[in-house]
């Protein structure tokens, strides 16, 4: 087994999960505020689509979702530490919403969604 990459210290799973939880709750609030009433049968699908859209948008345009920013995380390219490209954000988001790809990790703490998109989460503070 190879050693962890020293350029990117491992981000704790708690911090990652807290960021996703914040993004999910924001998506929940947006869905209820703009699209559906609380308890409607379609609410789960609307929350899921809102989460997916906001994650993709913020990852592609700013390198961090609101939840990431709140907990001090940022998405960067693994190869050079630069901003992720829109394609990388799309791959990362698509695989993240499959959940299982986001909870399997390598020695650098990167999930399959990060390895296949060539991205990594780093701490900003």
Give an overview of the whole structure.
The chain is mainly alpha-helical and 125 residues long. It has one domain. 53% of the residues lie in helices and 8% in strands. It contains five helices and two strands; from the N terminus they run αααβααβ. It has helices spanning 13-35, 43-62, 66-71, 86-96, 112-117, and strands spanning 73-77, 119-123. Strands 1-2 form a two-stranded antiparallel sheet. The protein starts with 12 loop residues before the first helix and ends with a strand.
* Shape descriptor: elongated
Strand content: 5-15%
How much helix is in the residues?
40-55%
Task: Give me the number of helical elements.
Answer: 5
Structural class: mainly alpha
Main beta sheet strand tally, sense and closure:
2 strands, antiparallel
Mean pLDDT: 88
Rg over C-alpha atoms, rounded to the nearest angstrom: 15 Å
Distance separating the two termini: 29 Å
Spatial order of the strands forming the largest sheet:
1-2
In quaternary terms, these chains amount to single chain
SSE succession: HHHEHHE
The parts where pLDDT drops under 50 for at least 5 residues are none
Domain count: 1
Q: Count every beta strand, where a strand is a DSSP E run of 2 or more residues.
A: 2
